[in-house]
Specification:
By secondary structure, the protein is of the alpha+beta class. The protein is built from 15 helices and 16 strands. α1 packs antiparallel against α5 and α5 runs parallel beside α9. The structure holds histidyl-adenosine monophosphate. The site of histidyl-adenosine monophosphate has 25 residues, from β6, β10, β11 and α11.
Length: about 425
C-alpha cells in the first residue's frame, strides 16, 4: 500500500518550528490589544455565495481556486447547499458583523483573526493550498467614523509597528487608491475603451474580463499580456476629488507618523471588494511570492452582501510567509533549536514510576519544564535519553525516595549534586551549569 502523505499544498508544522509560529501569534495578539482589537473566530466553511458576492465571481480566487462542494441534504425538505472552505476571512467577518447586528452598537468594531485559509493555487515556496492568515478588520457605521482616513493610517501604522516588533526589517509598504465605486465604474469604462483594440491579442480570460470585469485584466499573470497591461490607463487618473482628498489625508497622516510608503499606481489587488486605499507590505527575501500581507478599504462590502452601510478597512498577513522571513533572518534563532527541558526524571525501576510522576507533577506546578523517564529503562538508557531532552537528570531510586535527598547531574558542567527534595524546584530553576 502506498504510504499516505499530507495532500499537495498542505503541510504538517512540527516542533521546534511551531515555537516560532506561536511567538509570532503571541506578538500579534499583544500588539492588537494595544490598539484595542478583540478576537473573532468565524467558521472554516461558509455558503459559497458569500465569496461569490464579496470577493467577486471574476477573481482568480472565486473562479479557479475555491474548494467547493455540494453538501448533501439530510432531509427531503432540505435543499443541498453549496459550501466552500474559506479562501479568506474578510467576507466571513463582515457576514458575522451583519448577522450579529454589530452595527447597532454604534461603535467601530475592531476585530482580528488568526486561522487557516484554503486556495487551490499552484504550490511553491511561500504559496500553499492551506495557509494561515493573521488579519484584522475595522468596520462600523459611518457615524462611528469608519470612513475616516485616520482609520486607514492607524491600521497601516499598526502594521509597521507589528512588523518592527517581530524584528522583520526591510519591508516596503506599497500604497494606492482604487477610488470609490463610482470612480471604479468610470475607470472600467476607460479601461474597456482602451482594451477594445488590444484585447484580441490577449489571453482568453482577459478577453472575457473586458466584458465582465475589466479591472481584473490588471491581475493577469500571462507573461505575453504584460507589455499590453503596462500601456493601459492608470486608475489614479480616474479618481474623483473626494477619493483624491481621502487618499491625501491618509498619506499625510503616515508621513506625520513617520511610516514610509511607496506609491504604486498598479496596485489594484485581486479581490473585488476594495474601494479607495489599497496596500501591500512586501519583502525582498521572499522571492516571487513577496507579499507579506495585503489589505485595503471596502466601503461597499456590507451592502453587497445584504447588510447596512458599514465602511471598513482591514488586512491579512500570510503567517507562513512571516515564518519564512524570520527563519531566513534567524537561521540560528533559539526558538528553532530543539526544546530542552529543565530536568529529566529517571525512576530506577518500575516501582518508582508512580513516585516519579508525583515528583514531576510537583516540579511542573512550580513552573519547571520536566521530561519524565521510565522505570523500565536501564540507567545508561536513561542518561542517553536525558542528555537529548534536558539540561539535567534527577535520579529517583529507593534510597532517594527513603532519604528525600535526590541526585542531580548537570550535563553542561558534569557536576553531580545531592539536593534535598524540598530544595529541588529552586535548584532546577537556576540556570544550567550547576
Ligand atoms: P490577500 O492578498 O488575498 O488578501 O491575502 C493576504 C495575504 O495572505 C497575502 O499577502 C499573503 O501573505 C497571504 N497568502 C495569500 N495566499 C496565500 C497562499 N496561497 N499561500 C501562502 N500565503 C498566502 C486577503 O485575503 C484579504 N482578505 C485581506 C484583507 C483583509 N483585505 C481587507 N481586509
Amino acid at each position: 500500500m502506498p504510504t499516505l502523505k499530507a495532500v499537495r499544498g498542505t503541510r504538517d508544522l512540527l516542533p521546534p518550528e511551531t515555537a516560532l509560529w506561536n511567538r509570532i501569534e503571541t506578538t500579534a495578539r499583544q500588539v492588537f490589544a494595544r490598539y484595542n482589537f478583540g478576537e473573532i473566530r468565524t467558521p472554516i466553511f461558509e455558503d459559497t455565495s458569500l465569496f461569490a458576492r464579496s470577493v467577486g465571481e471574476e477573481t482568480d480566487i472565486v473562479s479557479k481556486e475555491m474548494y467547493t462542494w455540494e453538501d448533501r441534504a439530510r432531509a427531503q425538505s432540505e435543499k443541498p447547499q453549496s459550501l466552500t472552505l474559506r479562501p479568506e476571512n474578510t467576507a466571513g467577518v463582515v457576514r458575522a458583523y451583519i448577522e450579529h447586528k454589530l452595527g447597532e452598537t454604534g461603535q467601530l468594531q475592531k476585530l482580528y483573526y488568526i486561522g487557516p485559509q484554503f486556495r487551490r493555487e499552484r504550490p511553491q515556496k511561500g504559496r500553499y493550498r492551506q495557509f494561515w492568515q493573521i488579519g484584522a478588520e475595522v468596520i462600523g457605521p459611518p457615524s462611528a467614523g469608519s470612513e475616516s482616513p485616520l482609520r486607514d493610517a492607524e491600521v497601516l501604522e499598526m502594521l509597521a509597528t507589528l512588523l518592527d516588533t517581530l524584528g522583520i526589517a526591510g519591508w516596503t509598504l506599497e500604497l494606492n487608491s482604487v477610488g470609490s465605486s463610482a470612480d471604479r465604474e468610470r475607470y472600467n469604462q476607460v479601461l474597456r475603451a482602451a482594451l477594445v483594440d488590444v484585447a484580441p491579442k490577449m489571453c482568453v480570460d482577459c478577453q472575457r474580463r473586458v466584458v465582465t470585469n475589466p479591472l481584473r485584466v490588471l491581475d493577469c499573470k500571462v507573461p505575453e499580456d504584460q507589455p499590453i497591461i503596462e500601456t493601459l490607463p492608470k486608475i489614479g487618473d480616474s479618481l474623483g476629488q473626494d477619493s483624491k482628498d481621502h487618499f491625501a489625508q491618509v498619506t499625510a497622516a503616515l508621513e506625520a507618523a513617520g511610516v514610509p510608503y511607496h506609491l504604486n499606481p498598479r496596485l489594484v489587488r485581486g479581490l473585488d471588494y476594495y474601494t479607495r486605499t489599497t496596500f501591500e507590505f512586501t519583502h525582498g527575501g521572499l522571492g516571487a511570492q513577496n507579499a507579506l500581507l495585503g489589505g485595503g478599504r471596502y466601503d461597499g462590502l456590507s451592502e453587497a452582501i445584504g447588510g447596512p452601510k458599514a465602511p471598513g478597512i482591514g488586512f491579512a498577513m500570510g503567517l507562513d510567509r512571516l515564518v519564512l522571513t524570520l527563519q531566513a533572518k534567524e537561521a540560528d534563532h533559539s526558538s528553532a533549536s530543539p526544546q530542552v527541558a529543565d530536568a529529566y526524571i529517571a525512576p530506577l525501576g518500575e516501582a518508582l514510576n508512580a513516585p516519579a510522576l508525583t515528583l514531576a507533577r510537583e516540579l511542573r506546578r512550580a513552573g519547571l519544564h520536566i521530561e519524565l523517564g521510565d522505570g523500565s529503562f536501564r540507567l545508561k538508557k536513561s542518561f542517553e535519553a536525558a542528555d537529548k531532552a534536558a539540561r539535567r537528570i534527577v535520579i529517583l531510586g529507593e534510597d532517594e525516595l527513603q532519604s528525600g535527598i535526590l541526585t542531580v547531574k548537570d550535563f553542561a558542567s558534569g557536576i553531580q549534586t545531592k539536593v534535598p527534595c524540598v530544595e529541588l524546584a529552586a535548584h532546577l530553576a537556576k540556570p544550567g551549569g550547576a
